[in-house]
């Protein structure tokens, strides 16, 4: 579920220990494992025909991990590593605006931040904006996988030393942006939510913990706007009084503080989220609209 929310589009499911003497590469046992997993994966949002690929393997012997499988006559597909290499790459925009969600920060001869560059390119001596506090910063140095470099492209995990901001002025969940195209920030937004696991009903006023990109913030569901039919996508005309497990709804959420976010349509990496309560993920969702704050 968390993988789907994080943007994972393809799933390879390895059915392990198929070499066990009690199994002996049995097709019946393999199909039994598939039948147990597929309903859950469908519920989360994966399409079994397009998004999921099952394969038998043995982690102990390495069978079907790197080399083609010889012990199992009924499996004719590729081994795991070969199939992994054949999957399409995730496309990120080199020409897009800079978006670097901050995971952590510390002091080391200045202010150092850590994060993955989701969009745009960053160079040494570049001027950027830290959101949501709108500090102008300069990149003094950057490291990709602990190797110093002058430039970085999307998808790289970076360590940046910044000028113009103190370490205590930065929090995880802040975003480093292009000066001419800063990210949106606010407290209130409308979102489509899928209730995955929750024993009781959820009503307006319900509080949970929002996890969106690298930001963690308390939120409240301030209003339920409509229910959404899972199959047809049709929206109800009457506002629901509550939602429950396995239902899809559009709701208005309000964060305890100002957060950086984008609509899912414009920027999926910064528009998808999970809601957690008492240590459990109760819902997944996507941001549909940012609601301006009233004066």
From TrEMBL:
Q: Which residues form the Tr-type G domain?
A: 2-68
Q: Which CDD domains match?
A: eRF3_C_III, eRF3_II
Q: What's one GO-annotated cellular component?
A: cytoplasm
Q: Which residues are in the GTP-eEF1A C-terminal domain?
A: 189-287
- Translation elongation factor EFTu-like domain: which residues? 110-177
Q: Give UniProt keywords alphabetically.
A: GTP-binding, Nucleotide-binding, Protein biosynthesis
Task: Write down a Pfam family by its short name.
Answer: GTP-eEF1A_C
**Entry GO MF terms:** GTP binding; GTPase activity
InterPro entries in UniProt: EFTu-like_2, GTP-eEF1A_C, P-loop_NTPase, T_Tr_GTP-bd_dom, TRAFAC_GTPase_members, Transl_B-barrel_sf, Transl_elong_EF1A/Init_IF2_C
> Might you name a Gene Ontology BP term for this protein?
translational termination
The entry assigns this protein to a family as follows: Belongs to the TRAFAC class translation factor GTPase superfamily. Classic translation factor GTPase family. EF-Tu/EF-1A subfamily.
Descriptive protein name: Uncharacterized protein
Q: What is the lineage of its organism?
A: Eukaryota, Metazoa, Chordata, Craniata, Vertebrata
């Amino acid at each position: 579920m968390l993988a789907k929310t994080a943007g994972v589009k393809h799933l390879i499911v390895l059915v392990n220990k198929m070499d066990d003497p009690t199994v002996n590469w049995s097709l019946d046992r393999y199909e039994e494992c598939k039948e147990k997993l597929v309903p859950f994966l469908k519920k989360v949002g994966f399409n079994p025909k397009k998004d999921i690929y099952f394969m038998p393997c043995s982690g102990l012997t390495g069978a079907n991990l790197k080399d083609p499988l010889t012990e199992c006559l009924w499996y004719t597909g590729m081994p795991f590593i070969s199939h992994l290499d054949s999957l399409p790459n995730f496309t990120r925009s080199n020409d897009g605006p800079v978006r670097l969600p901050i995971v952590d920060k510390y002091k080391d001869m200045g202010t150092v931040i850590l994060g993955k560059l989701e969009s745009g390119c960053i160079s040494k001596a570049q001027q950027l904006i830290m959101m949501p506090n709108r500090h102008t910063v300069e990149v003094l140095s950057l490291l990709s996988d602990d190797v110093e470099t002058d430039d970085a492209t999307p998808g790289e995990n970076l360590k940046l030393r910044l000028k113009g901001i103190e370490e205590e002025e930065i929090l995880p969940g802040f975003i480093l942006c292009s000066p001419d195209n800063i990210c949106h920030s606010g407290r209130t937004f409308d979102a489509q939510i899928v209730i995955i696991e929750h024993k009781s009903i959820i009503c307006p006023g319900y509080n949970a913990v929002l996890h969106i990109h690298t930001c963690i913030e308390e939120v409240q569901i301030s209003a339920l706007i409509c229910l959404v039919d899972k199959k047809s996508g049709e929206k109800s005309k009457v506002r629901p009084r509550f939602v429950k497990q396995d239902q899809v709804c559009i709701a208005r959420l309000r964060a305890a503080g100002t957060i950086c976010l984008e609509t899912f349509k414009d920027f999926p990496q910064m528009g998808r989220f999970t809601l957690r309560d008492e240590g459990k993920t109760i819902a997944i969702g996507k941001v549909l609209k940012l609601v301006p704050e009233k004066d």
